[in-house]
Amino acid sequence: LPIFSGQWLMFFFRSVLDTLSSLPGLLVALAIGSFFQNTDAAFIIACGISLVPYLFRFFEGQITELQSRSYFQSTIAMGAHPGHLYLHYIIPELLSSVAAVFPFLMTRLILIETSFSFLGIQSFTKGETWGRLLYQGKDYLLEAPWIIAYVGAPLFLTLLAFHLLSDSERS
């Protein structure tokens, strides 16, 4: 049990993040949007609730994997300071792995912003967004479906490009 091994704080933090990641994103976005009434804080909080649990799990796994390498353990056994190892070995490795996570994060952020602007929850930008254009075209869906296609196709291609970039970075 983590409580008896001295890792109770990490156990509590993981439990909170698991609870956050289990919440339905759109429902949370609606609740946050109604609470903050068209402010940028709603968008930022929804992005945080959506992305922080994933990022924590990703970086925790990366750090655990790096700490289990033989050079890390042997350097600690020889008396090196752990702060030096983290600063010179762990953090540069983590920064290189951000390149693999960045396309996924951008895809999630684009989807969150599109959902928010389609639902009219946030006013993050003053110009037109994909969500607002989709919302404006929904009234003409039966008469002119190409209006949605002209907005949906670039959105789809952008998300597909980030997904393919993410796959190429992982391999």
Keywords:
171 residues, mainly alpha, 7 helices
What is the compact description of this entry?
By secondary structure, the protein is mainly α. The chain is about 80% helix and about 0% strand.
Q: In terms of structural class, how would the helical and strand content be classed?
A: mainly alpha
Helix content: over 70%
Give me the strand/helix succession.
HHHHHHH
Largest sheet: none
Count of helical stretches: 7
Q: Give the mean pLDDT.
A: 81
Oligomer: single chain
Unreliable spans:
none
What is the CA-CA span between the terminal residues?
36 Å
- Overall number of strands: 0
- Principal-axis shape: elongated
Rg for CA atoms: 21 Å
Q: What percent of residues are in strands?
A: under 5%
